[in-house]
């Protein structure tokens, strides 16, 4: 078991008063803040692109099995937007600015925006995007390690939901036969 030396209360109090304008970013924050902000903004772009793609697919889904798929697309679109809000909130906490600018959104996103010509293609494109997000977020979690546990936990929560989304898409694809 590693022995962690706890800082005495007086020192904690004194440090908290220094650079108070930095808000949540204290002296104990050991991550490279600029890199973390870039990764958060890339993830924000990814979530926004996924929201838009799922929303389009919700409106465009047609065919016999489309209503079940459309319901999943809409649910996932809403969840991707919730992820975007959590990421934007964290960016602000770290003293950054969330980049919602639609210009360059797909360039900043890890996932692509592919419309899909039919229900099967839509499901495949959503599954591919989820798989990209899963690998990307897993790497970000490993990169963050113990340097930024709050951001890491946010990514862990989002990762778990992206894995559920991938499973949902794989099930829909399987259901098409």
Automatic annotation (TrEMBL):
One of its GO terms (biological process) is intracellular iron ion homeostasis. The keyword rRNA-binding does not apply. It catalyses: Fe(2+)(in) = Fe(2+)(out). It comes from Pseudomonas indica. It is an enzyme of class 1 (oxidoreductase). InterPro entries: Bacterioferritin, Dps-like, Ferritin-like, Ferritin-like_diiron, Ferritin-like_SF, Ferritin_DPS_dom. Belongs to the bacterioferritin family. Fe cation binds at residues 47, 83, 130, 162, 165. CDD domains: Ferritin_like. Residues 30-177 form the Ferritin-like diiron domain. One of its GO terms (molecular function) is heme binding. Pfam families: Ferritin. One of its GO terms (cellular component) is cytosol. Its EC number is 1.16.3.1. Keywords: Iron, Iron storage, Metal-binding. The keyword Endoplasmic reticulum does not apply. This is ferroxidase.
């Amino acid at each position: 078991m590693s022995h962690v030396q706890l800082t005495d209360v007086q020192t904690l109090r004194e440090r908290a008063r220094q650079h108070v304008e930095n808000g949540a970013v204290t002296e104990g924050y050991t991550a490279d803040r600029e890199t973390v902000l870039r990764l958060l903004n890339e993830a924000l772009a990814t979530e926004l692109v996924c929201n838009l793609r799922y929303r389009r697919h919700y409106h465009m889904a047609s065919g016999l099995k489309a209503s079940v798929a459309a319901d999943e697309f809409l649910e996932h679109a809403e969840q991707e937007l919730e992820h975007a809000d959590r990421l934007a909130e964290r960016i602000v906490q770290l003293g950054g600015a969330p980049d919602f600018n639609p210009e360059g959104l797909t360039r900043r996103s890890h996932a692509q925006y592919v419309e899909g010509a039919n229900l099967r293609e839509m499901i495949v494109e959503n599954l591919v995007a989820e798989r990209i997000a899963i690998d990307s977020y897993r790497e970000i979690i490993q990169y963050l390690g113990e340097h930024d546990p709050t951001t890491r936990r946010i990514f862990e929560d989002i990762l778990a939901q992206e894995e559920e989304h991938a499973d949902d898409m794989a099930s829909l694809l399987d259901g098409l036969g």
